[in-house]
Design goal:
Blueprint (H helix, E strand, L loop, with lengths): L8 H21 L7 H17 L8 H4 L11 E3 L9 E2 L2 H15 L6 E7 L2 E8 L2 E7 L5 E3 L2 H4 L16 E9 L2 H13 L8 H9 L4 H5 L4 E11 L10 H10 L9 E3 L2 H14 L7 E8 L2 H7 L9 E5 L4 E13 L4 E13 L2 E7 L3 H7 L6 E5 L7 E5 L24 E2 L7 E3 L5 H11 L12 H9 L14 H4 L7 H14 L4 H7 L7 H11 L2 H6 L2 H5 L6 H11 L2 H12 L22 E4 L7 H10 L14 E4 L4 H10 L3 E2 L1 H10 L5
Parallel strand pairs: 2-11, 19-20, 20-21
Antiparallel strand pairs: 1-6, 3-9, 3-10, 4-5, 4-7, 7-8, 10-11, 12-13, 12-15, 13-14, 13-18, 15-16, 17-18
């Protein structure tokens, strides 16, 4: 007799089965998933756990337990000679280690060698070669029966029509069709220019492109392919067959098939874990989407010995990286007012763990994006957060939209000060027209005190909100006239914190001119332009006296920036603000190049990142500029070198990706002295 079902388990199991069937068909058959992979995985895991706890309720249903989904009869059916199985998943390192332990115990011998491959986020396909020529390409389908997409796959330049010598008479190759990030971005750019609807993500676009009825359409989509497995093999290709999976990948490459170069063979499972962690940290450096790492036993004879379950091979597992898309409930849509008055809609959501952190708010960009995505309060929505990118709402899960839902309407008045919101014709942004709006004031003060500007500790969001709300600040000049005695009476402000705040304010008076110009939020003036203006005019007074033509004559500045800077410096309100700063002792002079410093860096762009032991970052930039070089704030193909101190972060990764020379402090000192980059 089986165990008695847990009360309520049957209803939940039936509900989960229906959800899995529904989303399985959307993903595999219709190429239009509503929910992220991570949410689908969670449904499957919950269903399997409930079935394991209630074995009497288990049923045989390929649409739930099988791989992929049914075909749509758009293409001819192809029966796979060997089933294209799915893989079991590990969602954390403990599960990954547990799988390796089961494999080792089952073998009862020395632990095997392992192969780690990237898990590509594309569409699984099977390529059949006979006598070295491509004769058939099929989708995975439900794992047993797929669709014939030979004509479409033949348009993919990565897929060879004919293999190199040494191929057996029959060779089935399995792999992934995908669209690179750069190809996806270019496709959407072209569609935007043509006023066509853009695509949501590379995976769905690749799947839809491969299943076009007209192969000519597929040919325009710039699809790519990675080979990662051998299926059916028949006959002798004139050479001994590989005995290991890693060797098989090299063999496939020798035959002319594209094989990803990031597959590694490891003998210690601790190294496997370290590799998985490294992949997680570098996933955004790739030009294609991945969602995990596949770990396989290398030895093909051991794979055969381990065999498979009804669903998946025992000799392989997919470690799933933390999801970058999840679903959650959108509670409300609100509008924030930025320091320049821009009104930006954002979503308030039920907290969800995505992209490595818990997210409760996400940007909706502007009114047009809200309309295009048609997200509404009460919707279940897909949220995306990739790395350090600001979280955004991708779109709604329409099948779960509440009845009676109505479209959200952008407000006509500022939610902070009540002033009218203005949208200039032809532009996407909407603005609050009141310069004194507390939302704008808070944003301008936070920016002024930020690390990249005047770098004043103690002016975080909560404190700035308190100071503005209490009427202590109406603009950035009020930083230097704060009533510290009154602040000392606020909750949470002891003698030490007030003294630290005062000291931080005093230190900021010594910041260089470029930092001040950036902190004033002059339109079109970022850190690089601010430094250029400081070096060109030397002081606030020098910039005030400059004409539009003189500003435009500064190398790298054009008429738009020149007009913006000149207009800002001669606005009555801004002139009063600058005078108040001068009165508070904030009137820095730029350190201009002196004639006795050789201009050995003429024409060079040197970026500085991280913390240097021998000099401050501002001092390093000044040294570069004094020698005729430029010190932009970001790394690009035009960067001559990157000076990297401790904590180089994303700029260091970008330099390595572009092949930009990276200098330590010793090499930087030599560069300042000689103007020569080390070999």
């Amino acid at each position: 007799m089986g165990t008695r079902p847990v009360e309520g388990a049957l209803a939940r199991i039936e509900q989960l089965r229906e959800l899995v069937r529904y989303h399985n068909e959307l993903y595999h058959a219709l190429d239009s998933p509503e929910i992220p992979d991570a949410d689908f995985d969670a449904l499957v895991v919950e269903l399997r756990d409930l079935e394991a706890a209630n074995p009497d309720l288990v049923v045989t249903d390929p649409s739930v337990s099988g791989v992929g989904g049914p075909t749509l009869n758009t293409f001819d059916e192809v029966v796979h000679a060997l089933p294209m199985r799915s893989l079991d998943n590990a969602f954390d390192l403990d599960e990954l280690r547990a799988w390796a332990g089961r494999v080792t115990r089952r073998l009862g011998a020395v632990p095997p060698a392992w192969v780690c491959e990237l898990k590509f986020d594309g569409l699984a396909v099977s390529l059949r070669y006979e006598n070295g020529r491509l004769v058939q390409a099929a989708t995975r389908g439900d794992g047993r029966v797929g669709e014939d997409v030979t004509a479409n796959v033949a348009t993919i330049s990565d897929v060879p029509a004919e293999l190199a010598s040494g191929a057996p008479p029959v060779l089935e190759v399995r792999g992934e069709v995908y669209m690179s990030k750069s190809a996806f971005a270019e496709l959407n750019r072209v569609r935007m220019e043509a006023d066509d609807k853009t695509f949501v993500n590379p995976r769905n676009t690749a799947a839809g492109s491969l299943r076009q009825k007209d192969p000519a359409v597929t040919a325009t989509r710039d699809l790519s392919f990675w080979a990662y497995q051998v299926g059916e093999v028949a006959g002798d290709g004139g050479r001994s067959e590989p005995t290991g999976h890693h060797e098989t990948l090299r063999w496939l490459g020798d035959l002319g098939l594209p094989v990803n170069d990031r597959a590694v063979r490891l003998t210690d499972f601790d190294d496997v874990v370290a590799h998985v962690i490294a992949v997680e940290g570098s996933r955004h450096d790739l030009d294609y989407e991945i969602d995990g790492v596949v770990v396989k036993v290398d030895d093909l004879a051991i794979q055969e010995e381990l065999g498979s379950t009804a669903r998946a091979p025992r000799w392989a597992i997919a470690y799933k990286l933390p999801p970058e898309e999840r679903t959650t409930r959108l509670l409300d849509i609100e509008v924030s007012i930025g320091p320049g008055g821009q009104a930006t809609p954002f979503a308030r959501m039920e907290p969800v763990f995505v992209g490595g952190s818990t997210v409760a708010a996400a940007t909706l960009h502007n009114a047009d994006q809200v309309g295009v995505k048609d997200v509404r309060p009460g919707d279940m929505v897909v949220v995306r957060k990739a790395g350090d990118v600001i979280p955004e709402v991708v779109g709604p899960v329409l099948s779960e939209r509440p009845e009676g839902s109505v479209p959200w309407v952008f407000p006509t008045d500022c939610p902070v000060c009540g002033s009218p919101l203005l949208r200039i014709e032809g532009e996407a942004a909407t603005f609050c027209v009141d310069n004194a709006c507390p939302g704008q004031v808070r944003g301008r003060i936070e920016h002024f005190a930020s690390r990249g500007a005047m770098d004043i500790d103690g002016f975080g969001e909560a404190r700035v909100d308190l100071f503005v709300t209490e009427g202590l600040m109406v603009d950035v000049a009020d930083v230097y006239s704060l009533n510290l005695d009154r602040i000392a009476g606020f909750e949470g402000f002891g003698e030490t914190s007030v003294r630290n705040l005062s000291d931080a304010i005093d230190r900021s008076r010594e910041r260089p001119l470029g930092r001040l110009l950036f902190g004033l939020r002059i339109p079109h003036v970022g850190t690089t332009v601010a430094d250029q203006l400081a070096q060109a005019f030397g002081s606030l007074a020098g910039l005030e006296a400059a004409t539009v033509d003189q500003i435009e004559a500064v190398e790298g500045l054009g008429p738009v920036i020149a007009t913006s800077v000149h207009g800002w410096m001669h606005d009555d309100h801004n002139m009063g603000l600058v005078e108040r700063l001068r009165s508070a002792g904030v009137d820095p002079q730029a350190v201009l190049p002196t004639s006795d410093v050789p201009r050995v860096l003429e024409g060079m762009a040197i970026v500085v990142t991280g913390t240097l032991a021998g000099m401050g970052r501002d001092e390093a930039k000044a040294a570069i500029i004094a020698r005729g070089g430029r010190s932009p704030g970001s790394v690009s193909v035009k960067t001559s070198a990157l000076v990297a101190g401790e904590g180089g972060g994303s700029k260091l990764a970008r330099a390595e990706e572009l092949g930009v020379p990276v200098l330590d402090e010793a090499a930087f000192s030599l560069l300042l002295e000689t103007g020569r980059l080390p070999t």
